[in-house]
Amino acid sequence: MDLSPLPDPDTFLTVVEFCAKLRISKDTFYKWRQIPGAAPIAHKLPNGSLRISGTDFNAWLTTLRSEAA
User: Fold this and answer.
1) Total structural domains in the chain?
2) Domain range spanning residue 42?
3) Rounded CA gap, 68 and 3, in Å?
4) What does the angle CA 17 – CA 58 – CA 69 come to, to the nearest 5 degrees?
5) What's the DSSP call for residue 54?
6) Which of 2, 4, 8, 27 has CA 20 to 30 A from 58's CA?
7) What is the DSSP string of 4-15?
8) How far is 66 from 18, CA to CA, in rounded Å?
9) pTM
10) Which secondary structure element, helix H or strand E, spans residue 44, and what is its range?
């Protein structure tokens, strides 16, 4: 999975952009949101849509790193 370039920490991704970057469906994203820690923090806008900051995306991605076996 090619995640480069990582999002600029000062930008916000829409759910569609986030899903495209990870090559997952929106259904998968919303399922992950139901499991604590499985998805990055999402900010809810007044219109109800969600945004993921580049900073939160990068921090979440770092938590998924594991040592090579």
Assistant:
1) 1
2) 16-63
3) 18
4) 110
5) H
6) 27
7) PSPPPTT-EEEH
8) 21
9) 0.81
10) strand 43-44
